[in-house]
Specification:
The chain contains 13 helices and 21 strands. The protein is α/β, with parallel strands linked by helices. The strands form seven sheets. It has a five-stranded parallel beta sheet, covered by helices on one side. The chain has a five-stranded parallel beta sheet with strand order 10-17-11-12-13. A three-stranded antiparallel beta sheet has the order 14-15-16, with no helix packed on it. Helix 4 links the parallel strand 5 and strand 6. It is globular and about 60 Å long.
Length: 422
């Protein structure tokens, strides 16, 4: 399923900035932009990530199966005589919109090869003459796209091919499976041979409920990493039906519920290992309770994600709101109200938080490195992008705009501001 833009489009181009595949046109600077006509989504390159729908101020971007047929046809017709624009073709991208970093080649270290790190690398290649050293602790690029996107969403993972092509650029030195600590400078100093460092390390820590018995629960981060086959990931609990409780009301919670309730036919169609498929099929979990500590108005899941869950297992999902967990026991999840929900497994999906980076300041309340538009406060030459910059929120496309801002700050600023701003 792709996305389409309806005739209600306001053409403010917010969606252009977050589209990870450069699928929305005309973009600023292209013929037709700003003339009052609608923007259009190329169905040949759209990966169904939903970034455009999440940011559209007038709800004009919609899944194609929910849009009016004439809108779907208009979007396709706009691109009928146009070749698809490759998202990593540096020769066909628009001219830089801000000053290219002059003075000959420079060296920039990018730590992290997830979406934020890859988009930061792309921007450096596009906007500067820098040579980029890209390092990640894992052997493959992609980060949460590869190991966080649900295995029944293969279209979204197509962007990994784009990231892999970036690593093969002549000005990129790709160091998979590397330890960035060996390259980083001590005590916040720049490492030898580099003019700047962009830290794009994400936010892998799972937030905790802080209840008795929580150590016997399984976090969404652990479960998702296991079923996606992230190196070194294991399932820390034994799956036991017939009911599981998931605390959380975001899209990740819905992903966990959908995977747990998938029948053997759906599991066979997913990109998961035979071992994972076998464990899920034998779990005996037939029902999932999705528990929200606040009301439905505060739920963070998107409407398309909720519809997908109910289409897969609607009669086996119960949504509960205003329910606060008190303890996880052998009988199930005890609520502050005194009620106990009988269940064999507890999953927590209440968000992620960043962890400190050696030599850099850290805001523990927000789980980020304090920064001003990506420039780390008090550490000249150090920059951040992605979740460690803005907090663990926003999907793939938001990282594109976030990385663009950081690289623009790196290119245009000669010093780090003294204090963080808005």
């Amino acid at each position: 399923m792709t996305y389409a833009i309806s005739g209600e489009c306001c053409s403010d181009a917010s969606c252009v900035a977050v589209c990870p595949m450069n699928s929305i046109h005309p973009s600023p600077g292209e013929p037709g932009f700003g003339t009052g006509a609608s923007l259009f989504i190329d169905p040949r390159t759209c990966i169904d990530c939903g970034a455009c729908a999440g940011i559209c101020p007038v709800n004009a971007a919609q899944p194609a199966d929910q849009a009016a047929p004439e809108d779907v046809e208009r979007n396709a017709a706009y691109f009928a005589d146009r070749e698809p624009l490759e998202a990593t073709d540096l020769d066909t991208w628009e001219a830089p919109s801000y000053q290219v970093w002059g003075g000959g080649p420079r060296r920039v270290l990018v730590v992290g090869a997830g979406p934020a790190g890859m988009y930061a690398t792309r921007e450096l290649l596009l906007r500067t003459t820098a040579e980029v050293t890209l390092v990640d602790r894992l052997e493959q690029v992609g980060g949460l796209v590869r190991y966080g996107v649900a295995p029944d969403h293969p279209g979204t993972k197509q962007i990994i091919e784009t990231f892999e092509r970036i690593t093969r650029h002549q000005r990129v030195r790709w160091l998979p499976g590397g330890d960035a600590r060996e390259l980083r400078g001590a005590d916040g100093q720049l490492p030898d041979g580099f003019d700047a460092v962009i830290h794009a390390v994400g936010a892998r820590g799972s937030r905790r409920l802080v209840i008795d018995g929580e150590d016997a629960a399984c976090s969404a981060e652990e479960f998702v990493a296991w079923y996606n086959g992230r190196p070194g990931a294991t399932l820390p609990v034994e799956l036991a039906g017939p009911r599981a409780v998931i605390v959380g009301n975001g899209n990740v919670a819905l992903d966990v519920a959908r995977i747990l309730l998938s029948d053997e036919k759906r599991l066979r169609a997913m990109d998961v290992s035979p071992g994972v498929r076998s464990v899920l099929a034998a779990s005996g979990i037939k029902e999932v309770v999705l528990l929200g500590r606040r009301g439905p108005g505060e739920a963070a899941y998107t409407e398309p994600a909720l519809r997908e869950l109910f289409a897969a297992a609607g009669d086996r999902v119960e949504l509960r709101y205003h329910a606060r967990p008190a303890a996880w026991t052998a009988d199930g999840l005890k609520l502050e109200s005194g009620e106990t929900i009988a269940a064999g497994n507890l999953f927590t999906a209440i968000g992620f938080e960043g962890t400190p980076i050696d030599g850099l300041p850290f805001d523990r309340d927000r789980g980020i490195v304090p920064n001003v538009r990506g420039a780390v406060v008090g550490r000249p030459g150090h920059y951040v992008a992605g979740w460690i910059k803005r907090g663990a929120r926003g999907g793939i496309g938001v990282n594109k705009a976030c990385a663009q801002e950081t690289v623009m700050t790196l290119v245009s600023s000669s010093r780090v501001p003294a204090s963080p701003g808005s």
